């Protein structure tokens, strides 16, 4: 008979699920993210990403039709989301940040997913988190959770 000693959880999926549950308990609701492609129609696997983030424990608002950045910001504000996930496009991100600021919603985290090579040249002042195609969804979820409520967790390495 072998005995297993339980140590710290290292699986990003399990850790992300635990952290979303902790955040939900602290906030009284699960972390909520709006996912939408923007006007420039960058390749963005919005449906697959929505399913994966929901599996981690996020409430996901999903819009599959490309939106103007101002419309996406309006939807994010109306739906009271914590974060908005969009494809990476420097022009769209700058417009989105301005629209969120106009709506006094500077607390909404802007997260971008980019195609390989599209990360170069993204506006540093606008973008709060960016993930490339090699980033696993559970790992990106951990970083989003760390940004949303850093005092609740030891930052994910």
The CATH H-level superfamily is Cobalamin-binding domain
Let me know the average pLDDT.
Answer: 76
At the first level of CATH, what is the class? Alpha Beta
Radius of gyration: 16 Å
Helicity, as a percent range: 25-40%
SSE sequence, one letter per element: HEHEHEHEEH
CATH-derived topology: Rossmann fold
Shape: globular
**How do the strands of the widest beta sheet line up side by side?**
2-1-3-4-5
| Class of secondary structure makeup | alpha/beta
Q: β content, as a range?
A: 5-15%
What's the number of structural domains?
1
| Low-pLDDT windows of residues | 1-7, 152-157
Q: Which architecture name does CATH use?
A: 3-Layer(aba) Sandwich
Main beta-sheet annotation: 5 strands, parallel
Work out the helix count.
Answer: 5
Number of strands: 5
Structure description:
This protein is an alpha/beta fold and 157 residues long. It has one domain: Rossmann fold. Helix content is 39%, strand content 13%. It has five helices and five strands, in the order αβαβαβαββα. It has a five-stranded parallel beta sheet with strand order 2-1-3-4-5, sandwiched between helices. Helix 3 packs across helix 4. The chain is globular and about 35 Å long. The protein starts with 11 loop residues before the first helix and ends in a 9-residue tail after the last helix. The N terminus and C terminus are likely disordered.
